[in-house]
Amino acid sequence: MIQVAVLGYGTVGSGVVEVIEKNKEEINKKSGEELNIKYILDLRDFPGDPYEDKVVHDVNQILDDPEVKIICETMGGLKPAYDFTKRALLSGKSVCTSNKELVAAHGPELIQIAHENKCNYLFEASVGGGIPIIRPLNYSLTAEKIDAITGILNGTTNYILSKMEKEGAGFEEVLKEAQEKGYAERNPEADVEGYDACRKIAILSSLMCGKNVKYEDIYTEGITKITATDFIYAHAMGKTIKLLAQSKEEDGNFYAMVAPFMISRDHPLYMVNDVFNAVCVHGNMLGDSMYYGRGAGKLPTASAVVSDVVDCARHIGKVIMCFWDAEDVKLTGIDEASRRFFVRVSAEKEREAIAVFESVRVVEADVSGEFAFVTDVMTEKEFNKKAEAVGIISRIRIEG
Ligand code: HSE
Predict the structure, then answer these.
(1) Which residue spans within 81-145 are E strands per DSSP?
(2) Other Cβ atoms within 10 Å of 348 Cβ, number
């Protein structure tokens, strides 16, 4: 029997316990040995909960117990998760986590400590909720040189944008629904400002190049400035608006960014709605492949954590390879990246905008008092200069 401990009995932690209990037979068969949840660490008590007798408040009870071989860290945040994880790995206990913040900040260090101590630090649930994406990058696409990843990596913002598009719903109201469904972060700023997607693309980008892509270096813009009017224009253009996280390696340059983009109906991510996430991976031999599923929520995320527990159970005392060196990648700034932009200006600025942007494609929509257009392909730097000269209401980048 393999003893497991769960750190944090919140949304994901309680999901881990539920998945292990409900799919006991399947999981035990696939692990090759029976798994037993010995401890659940939380500051709170859970009177009446079927697992109340497993709840402990002192992490040392878990870390000092040689029987515990696998720990699920579902606490989130850096403190005290970093300290607990490090101590667990140093004592040879494998750790499976959904904590993208910790993986993005300390991934290479924790992987190395795990390997030095013949155990594993696995983080399938840290990106894309229940979608298998870390394992495909680590084990399946090993014959590929991966040169681009584009994804919808945050369930909360995709849920909000989808509802805004379909129902014309207000931002605050939909955010509340996402929180009630257990999709949003405790502080939803991390979702709506793009920080969560930024950490996730940093993790994927690091696995893509085998070195460390620092999330702090990634240009990040959230969805708080997207309005119902933007969707009126998007519809008129046969497009929708999605928060995309991208990274691309081209001619020795490495670009990464998170921002809302307008995408058209023929884009593979166009139909990815609600809490669903999807990741498009481009490899030099395979070409495009896409991974799709529920990107947030208790059971999908817990399922990914438990898939890692099974992997650890199958590899007790053995190291599962993961190529993510501590050496930092130097990212190329987005200033030189070229694309088209959708732009809104007040109606009085129509002539001036045409004069400054020269060649524009006018967007006709049922919006009064405004002039809207799509620019030619230009660099971010050029665009910013022109936009500043005219004084625009807003702009959204166009993908593809
Ligand atoms: N808040 C995150 C999201 C949870 O909405 O995607 C899953 O990482």
Answers:
(1) 94-97, 121-122
(2) 11
Atom of ligand 1 nearest to the CA of 154: 6
Q: Which of 183, 198, 201, 258 is the best mutation target for the ligand 1 pocket, counting ligand atoms within 8 Å of the beta carbon and taking the most?
A: 183
Q: What are the pLDDT digits (tens) for 98-149?
A: 999 999 999 999 999 999 999 999 999 999 999 999 999 999 999 999 999 9
Distance CA(216)–CA(212), nearest Å, equals 11
- How many whole angstroms separate alpha carbon 322 and alpha carbon 92? 17
Torsion angles phi and psi, residue 80, rounded to 5: -95, 15
Domain extents for the chain?
2-129+298-314, 135-294, 334-398
What is the DSSP secondary-structure string of 234-251?
HHHTTEEEEEEEEEEEET
Atom of ligand 1 nearest to the CA of 156: 5
Task: Say which CATH superfamily domain 334-398 falls into.
Answer: ACT-like. Chain A, domain 2 (3.30.70.1150)
Pairing state between β 219-220 and 146-152? unpaired
Q: Which of 200, 211, 239, 248 is catalytic?
A: 200
| Ligand 1 midpoint to CA 195 (Å) | 11
Active site includes 200?
yes
Nearest CA among 246, 240, 256 for reference residue 153: 246
- Measured from CB, residues less than 6 Å from any atom of ligand 1 are 129, 154-156, 183-185, 191, 196, 295-296
Give the global pTM: 0.97
Q: Residue 253: count other Cβ atoms within 10 Å of its Cβ.
A: 13
CA distances in angstroms from 399 to 11, 164, 230, 264, 330, listed in the order given = 34, 20, 15, 8, 24
Q: Which CATH architecture has domain 135-294?
A: 2-Layer Sandwich (3.30)
What is the CATH architecture of 2-129+298-314?
Answer: 3-Layer(aba) Sandwich (3.40)
Q: Position 278: which residue type?
A: A
pLDDT tens digits, residue range 275-319?
999 999 999 999 999 999 999 999 999 999 999 999 999 999 999
